Amino acid sequence: MGKATIIASLGKGEYRIKVEFDNARVQTRLAMIAENIAALTTQLDDLTGQEAEALAGLQNAINSLNLYLAVTPAEEYTQDPSYLNDLTKNAYEWRSHYDNAKHQISLAKTKKTGLEKDKSYLEKFCPSDFEAQAWCVEYKEDLTGTTKTIECDFLLKRDPKTNAIKNHTGIWLPATVAAPDAKMQHPLASSVHATWFNLCMAPAMQRHKGRYRIASITSIDKANNKCDLSFEGINEVGKRTSHLVDDKPINPQINGAQHATYSGADIVYGACNAAAFEVSDRVIVDLHGGVGAPTVIGFYSHPRRCADYVFDSNAINVPDSGGGDPYMEADGVYDFATSDFRINHADYVVTMNGITLSYSALSGGGAQWSSLAGDAIRGFQLFSSGRFHLIYRDKAPMTPQINLLFEKAGNIVCNMTLVSSYWPSTTHGDDVLNVAMTCTQPSSLAVFGSKLDAITMIST
Amino acid sequence: MLINGSAINGSVINGAATAIRFVADLPSVWIATRYRCYLTGAENGLASDIELPISSFQTRLRSGGLSYLSCVVNGVDAYVDAITARSNGKLKIWREYVLDDGEVSPYLMAEADYDELQTYSGGNAGTTGTLTGTGNFVPDTAETIALNNPTYYSLSGGKRRYRCEIDPRLRPGDTAVINGDTLVVDQIVHIVDVRTTVMEIAEA
């Protein structure tokens, strides 16, 4: 795969990058061209000197001839033309020197012009690097440094004027910066034989040793993080066309058969996997060099951000009279490793239903904010298992609602409200009832998602 | 654009890059055709173009990807200063129709950024140069153009190919009407020298 240096993050997973090429052969050729141009420049200086010298000699020879003819009686050189012949011969010789010098100059200039055009041609079509826009396959905004890149088994076509990658091919950044293990090479920077060999092998490579591919999701199983895919490709290059490879890659061979579509591909994406994807999304698929099953690793463009918190259950407990306090709770999963709430808990002030909660550590690195006030229990827990738990329990009749507010440096960074669609009026003992809840989360920083139909995530 | 020292309507005729493409009819009768190759000077800040005495040229005009143009110039060393001065120029090939009243109708056939100069010395032709160029020659608007006198037809891989009389107005992406067929042109190849005049079109 290729190599690129990240110049700037443009936000939401888009980057400005500098793509770097293995351009050693071109640099060698450019160095040779520079040497030859320098040699020709020196040669041209010499030739210009020779031309001036020959012109002066020619002028002198013509002057001598004219002078001799002017001062010598015609009878004299008619009787003995030997000196006249010598002068004439001398003039012709200088003329020959002069013409030859001029011819050599024009030849050297022609060679030099050709070499200068070769130089600009190579610089135009084989730059050692160029800047381009690229999407990261994941929603990452903080990638920096030099990284390997992802290309999708297409023949990359660059517009030499704009540096844009043509068609829908392109260069993507992986989710995490990784040391480059290869660089791309311009065809002109390779040998003719190597380029031809690569071109001939390309269809077989695309089919049997595919690396990355563009595909569309045709159906998705979010519970199991799997999806069905339709690859952007063709089954074969037409046997009678003039193309060795087409604009689209050959569809990959998977488990012994060629696939234009594939069912049950794993989705491996950040902390949320399939939760970030929808049907019809264009995605980047890792074909693992033709070994094993395809894996969806990210988006073709505009990657979606994984929800920081994803609810997967909720409940309301309405006890028998005298049988304990009613409560409302919700559970889910979160990204334990990167949760800023957990890591930098001292930066946050947490309130639930208007009551400030106190922080305390949980074993294993977890965190909790809680309040015991009278009969009321309010709590928000982040466990090291990657699960979180919200609870509000009170003896008094209550509105079926949990409002959780996080403030950081005086700014509200999370304002989440879980609202039950109703509070059950009848009970059957200490039953835990699953009821519909709505989660609103208008903050711009944290995002709550949902796996439950009963909880609707609204994010900004 | 100057041809023979005089401006042609002051603008590009049948140019690929013009937003509004004007496809003039070809003359119904003419007594001769000739090809002229120019290297433009405007890109180097020069007021004049130079005409190059080509002995042959070839094009490969494509709807996808770069189009290619190469022109062979005998005795190129005599023009080296003028060529060098126009190192960023464009190569243009015009086909001229000479009418019976002596008037000339010029049509732009191909245009490309001048990229390379290869020279060959020896032989009777002296120093021969091949100027090559690349560029996009797909017009903004496609037209339908009737082509004449097909001499060759093939159907390969479901794609039709024709060789026929040169029509200098045809561009990649145009719809060609030929021999009762209608096809969208993907590629146009011109091969022209003192003995040969070929235009081959391939379907998209």
CATH-defined architecture of the largest domain in chain B = Beta Barrel
Largest sheet of chain A: 8 strands, mixed
Summed up, the domain count of chain A is 3
**Oligomeric state:** heterodimer
N→C terminal distance of chain B: 32 Å
First-last Cα distance of chain A: 36 Å
CATH top level of the largest domain in chain B is: Mainly Beta
Q: How many domain units of chain B?
A: 2
What are the low-pLDDT stretches of chain B, counting only 5+ consecutive residues below 50?
1-19
Strand content of chain B: over 45%
**Major beta sheet summary of chain B:** 13 strands, mixed
Kindly report the greatest chain-chain contact and the residue count on each side. A-B, 21 and 23 residues
| Portion in beta strands of chain A | 25-35%
What's the structural blueprint in terms of helices and strands?
The complex is a heterodimer of chains A (460) and B (204).
Chain A: E1 3-11, E2 14-20, H1 24-71, H2 74-79, H3 82-125, E3 129-136, E4 146-148, E5 172-173, H4 192-208, E6 212-221, E7 226-231, E8 253-254, E9 257-258, E10 261-267, E11 282-286, E12 295-299, E13 309-318, E14 327-334, H5 340-343, E15 348-352, E16 355-356, E17 358-361, E18 367-373, E19 376-382, E20 387-393, E21 401-408, E22 411-420, E23 431-433, E24 437-440, E25 448-450, E26 455-458
Parallel strand pairs in A: 3-5, 10-12, 13-25, 24-26
Antiparallel strand pairs in A: 1-2, 1-4, 2-3, 6-7, 6-11, 7-10, 8-9, 11-12, 13-14, 13-23, 14-20, 15-16, 15-21, 17-18, 18-19, 19-20, 21-22, 22-24
Helix pairs in contact in A: 1-3
Chain B: E1 2-3, E2 6-7, E3 32-39, E4 50-52, E5 54-62, E6 67-74, H1 80-85, E7 90-98, E8 104-120, E9 128-135, E10 144-146, E11 152-156, E12 159-164, E13 175-178, E14 181-193, E15 197-203
Parallel strand pairs in B: 10-13
Antiparallel strand pairs in B: 1-2, 3-4, 3-7, 5-6, 5-14, 6-9, 7-8, 8-9, 11-12, 12-15, 13-14, 14-15
